[in-house]
Design brief:
Number of helices: 7
CATH superfamily: PPM-type phosphatase domain
Largest sheet: 6 strands, antiparallel
CATH class: Alpha Beta
Order of helices and strands: EEEHHEEEEEHHEEHHHE
CATH architecture: 4-Layer Sandwich
Number of strands: 11
Strand content: 25-35%
Distance between the termini: 5 Å
Structural class: alpha+beta
Radius of gyration: 17 Å
């Protein structure tokens, strides 16, 4: 497997509140952790970077060669909920960091299977054959309105609450992340991104860039694409090529 990751401040932000890590856990397992922070001053940057650091350290410490599927699931979920407790405690004990939080999407690929956890609106897409599928589900106010039929997808693009997140790390005492598993095989691709990409580029455009770009250049090309079309937010992309 191969993996790549890149983050960029974009064209309009003064600081990058996104953070990403991609690396090997051992015995052929690969992981990606991607976060998009929120909060005043440097609090968003702190929340995202500390969450990535916390989850990375837990995964590296907890992964072992004979780990079972259920143990991998538990490792992912406890790592993310542990990060939630850490960030929440920091936010309530430090006035400068009050109200901070971060999205988080984490993936591990091991033994032809992908294990995924997400909180917020940072996403994971699955590319297999000529198909593209959004695996994770956004925890957003807009998604709830669309699912209830209150607004259409087109209306969501200009809705005043389109950036409102309904779930994030560090905001509440307790957190229940979403969890997914996928079978993967040689030639498949998992792409992780912050909403700096998905909010400003349609899925069809993402698929087009990925289909005509070498895997080693996917992150760079997707970031270049969104920056050339506005770059109104920090943007982060990571890929795992099976």
């Amino acid at each position: 497997m191969k993996f790549y990751a890149k983050t960029d401040i974009g064209n309009m932000r003064e600081q990058n509140e996104d953070c990403v890590w991609a690396g090997e856990l051992g015995n052929g397992a690969v992981a990606v952790i991607l976060c998009d922070g929120m909060g005043g001053e440097n609090a968003g940057e702190y929340a995202s970077s500390k969450t990535v650091e916390f989850v990375r350290d837990r995964l590296l410490k907890g992964f072992r060669q004979d780990i079972t599927r259920n143990q991998l699931r538990n490792l992912l979920l406890t790592s993310v909920t542990g990060a939630n407790s850490y960030i929440y405690d920091e936010s309530v004990s430090n006035r400068d960091k009050a109200g901070m939080g971060t999205t988080c999407v984490v993936g591990i690929v091991y033994n032809e299977r992908a294990y995924l956890v997400n909180v917020g609106d940072s996403r994971c897409y699955f590319f297999y054959g000529d198909n593209m599928q959004q695996v994770t589900k956004d925890h957003t106010y807009i998604r709830n309105l669309i699912e209830k039929g209150i607004i259409t997808y087109e209306e969501s693009k200009t809705h005043p609450d389109r950036n409102k997140i309904t779930k994030a790390i560090g905001v509440d005492t307790y957190l229940t992340p979403d969890y997914f598993e996928l079978d993967v095989q040689n030639g498949d691709l998992l792409m992780f991104c912050s909403d700096g990409l998905s909010s400003y580029v349609e899925d069809e455009e993402i698929a087009d860039v990925v289909s005509r770009t070498p895997v080693s250049k996917c992150c760079e090309q997707l970031i270049d694409y969104v920056n050339k079309h506005g770059g109104r937010d920090n943007v982060t992309v990571a890929v795992i090529s099976v």
